[in-house]
Amino acid sequence: MQRREFIGLIGGAAVWPLAARAQQNRTFRLIGVLHASAPNSPEFKRRLGALTEGLRKLGWIEGRDIKFEIRTAVGQMDRLPALAAELVALNVDIIVSSGVELIQAAQKATSTIPIVMSAVGDAIGAHLIDSLSHPGGNITGLTLVASEQSTKRLELLKEIMPNVERVGILWNGKNDSHKSALEAMRPAIPPLKLTIQSLPTRNTAEIEEAIQTAVKGGVQAFVTMDDIAPISPVCGDTRQSLSIKFSKVRSRATYRLNSQLNSNLS
């Protein structure tokens, strides 16, 4: 699904009729935004700006037709349940978020308010939806089906570095779908003549430690899972944050960001 289709999805969700929800006497739609990064970070500004502009093109003008209630964890993911609960208490019309941990927090907070996921690696593997054709519940949006793309990541890295033998896989230890993605990678390992080191991480400190330890152990390159983004930067840009970490150890990496597979060569 393209970004314009996603924006249209949000516009539709803003008038999504759910019988269990009481209609309010408001002249505008209240959109709750749940995000991991700080509100002044380049990543957050970029995403909110794209959302605002996309909705404007569809006739939804901020301040007239829609208003945003923004809650950000600023890298402190343990705050997510409370932040999601705040949005529910405000009786927002929809909740927009991305990343498994954030969507799960919203899902636990409400079963009636529509939740729109802007990007989740594998919504089925993370048990957020039942299936692509019949998601069920109150969640809709984009899923990258990361498990099916995992092999492509290794193949891309092998093209960039034909002589690479040992690869570290950085993944979010709190994301169940990443386990499925790792399993999906295994058939590709022997043909590519690779040795894989699994590196589950849960916060910024663990990411830095995992990279340094892996390099000392002989890892020559890294592949990161899509949902490592919310636990990587505390206040900065995901791409820049990971680039700095990899450059410190003079390594190479491929990583998922904004629905595109990007390569970073240090």
Concise overview:
The protein has about 270 residues and is α/β, with parallel strands linked by helices. It has nine helices and ten strands.
Structure write-up:
With 266 residues, the chain is α/β, with parallel strands linked by helices. The protein is built from nine helices and ten strands. It folds into two domains: 141 residues, Response regulator (Rossmann fold); 120 residues, Rossmann fold (3-Layer(aba) Sandwich), CATH 3.40.50.2300. Strands 2-1-3-4-5 form a five-stranded parallel beta sheet, with helices on both faces. A five-stranded mixed beta sheet has the order 7-6-8-9-10, sandwiched between helices. Helix 2 links the parallel strand 1 and strand 2. Helix 3 crosses helix 4 and helix 5 packs across helix 6. The protein starts with a helix and ends with a strand.
